[in-house]
Each structure stands twice: as structure tokens, then as C-alpha cells.
Amino acid sequence: MAWLDPHATFDPDSYCAPVIGIAATLGDHDSGLHQHQRAQLLFTRKGCTRITLAQQICLLPPSRAAWIPAGVAHRAVMQQSVDYRSLYLSPALCVDLPQQVCVIEVSTLLGAVLEPMALADFDTDWHQGKHVHLLGLCLAEIRDAARQPMLLPLPWDKRLAPLLKTLEHLPPELQVLQTQTGASSRTITRIFQRETGMSYQQWRQQWRLMRAMELLSTGRNIGYCSFELGFGSDSAFIAFFREMAGVTPGNWLK
User: Fold this and answer.
1) What percent of the chain has pLDDT over 70?
2) For residue 1, pLDDT beyond 50
3) What CATH class does 12-148 carry?
4) Rounded-to-integer distance, Cα 74 and Cα 103, Å
5) What pairing do the DSSP bridges indicate for beta strands 75-89 and 49-52?
6) Cα–Cα distance for residue pair 26/4, rounded to 1 Å
7) Does domain 154-253 have CATH number 1.10.10.60?
8) In terms of Cα–Cα distance, which of 117, 69, 72 is closest to 94?
9) Which of 100-114, 158-172, 184-198 has the lowest mean pLDDT?
10) What are the start and end residues of each CATH 2.60.120.280 domain in the chain?
11) Residues of the chain with CATH 1.10.10.60
12) Which residues form the HTH araC/xylS-type domain (predicted)?
């Protein structure tokens, strides 16, 4: 049975087939930190999933999928109701696929292929019939998919521990962070540039964009997003979103 009960425990490594697919709708779910011997393609059909890695936060809004190579420790947190599909692929199938965690755009073809694969029985023979063709299309689509900027790198310098403990909340202005950490603004800027490839302001803006997408995906309106993310007005939030994402919040949701 490929449809996963919200309260069921599931270990993809306990099965022999090269592909194991599941479908589930979960609400306010936290997977906890874990890893598996198979690579995972996690596709959010409805709702939003946040995936925490060792040095990255990955946001998974609707129509996007996260590619997680085998052996990578990760934690998936789903807020409200999230309808998702997940494929677990044996290492032998992943030789030509990305070797790093990434977020990919799910094309119409990939979305159509994922559904029957996720709902297939655990003992499906993937070497013959229609399933071998579904698998071939799926692997090709993952390999060629456009990657999306939904990853936020995290600094690992211990002086920034106070910041990383409160990532659920809007990161403070640089001057406030300077007071919290005891490090100078120049030192903080140098750490962020070295460990994330961005200045602190760029990193903070990327956090705001990803959090905005998360809030919008879970049904929050423009006014709520504007207040939660520290904007003085709804129009300021919309202008920020358009500048960062290239579209307005409303068009992004569509």
C-alpha cells in the first residue's frame, strides 16, 4: 500500500525494489533528523515543507521538489496540511543525478510521472512494462530539471549561535546582531561572506523571501506577511517580493 498513514512509521531502506514511492497528506508534521541509504525526491503538491540540513535550510513550496542524495541527514517540517509525494531511489539509479541537495522545478511531465510512481505497489517490477518507461522518464526529468534558489546557506561560526537558535523569527538588523553576538559588524560581514557567499544583508533578504513564500503557501495574506517580516506597509512588502522573485506575491501563488 503506497498511501502512507499519518501515524505510520516508514523505513524505505527495508524494501528491496529499486524504487519505493509513497503518497501522504500530513498536518504539522516533524520528521526529526534522519537519513537513509536511498536518494529521495520529495514533491510538495499542496502546502509548504521546510527541510533543514547541516548547513542549509531548504524551502519546498508547491510545484517544487527537493532532491536529497543518499546519506544526507535532513529534517522535514510540514505546517498545517501538506499533500506530498516521495520517491526513494536506490544508489544504482542515481549515478547521473545531482550529488548535492537541490530544489528543482517540477515540469508537467515530471508531475504526471511522479503520481503513478508514488502510488505503485512496493513490490512493483521496475524492469519491465510501463514502469520501466516511467522510471526512465523520471530520471531524465530530474537530471534536466531547472534548479530553484530555495536554499539558504547557514554560517557555522560559533559566534553566530544566538542567530541560528532563533531562525523561526525575523533575523535582526546588523547593528542588533552585533550587540547580541559581541562581534563587530565588519567581523559578521566577513563571516557571512566566507561561509555563505553573501553579505549579512543579502542573507537576511533571502531569509525574508523564503519565509514570505512559506507564509503565502500556508494561506497567510499580504497584511500578515508584511507585518511578520518587518515591512512598514503592504506595498513595501509587495515591492520587495517583486524585486526578489520577479513577480508579485499573487502571481507567484498562481
Assistant:
1) 96
2) no
3) mainly beta
4) 14
5) antiparallel
6) 9
7) yes
8) 69
9) 158-172
10) 12-148
11) 154-253
12) 157-254
Report how far apart, in Å, the C-alpha atoms of 246 and of each of 159, 186, 209, 242, 243 are.
34, 31, 11, 5, 6
The count of C-alpha atoms lying within 13 angstroms of the C-alpha of 11, restricted to the half-sphere facing its C-beta, is 4
186-192 contact pairs (CB < 8 A, 24+): 187/159, 188/160, 191/155, 191/157, 191/159, 191/160, 192/155
Q: Does the pLDDT of residue 3 top 80, yes or no?
A: no
Q: What are phi and psi of 60, to 5 degrees?
A: -125, 85
| Per-residue pLDDT at 2 exceeds 60 | no
Lowest mean pLDDT among 74-88, 180-194, 199-213: 74-88
CA distance linking residue 188 with residue 35, whole number of Å:
32
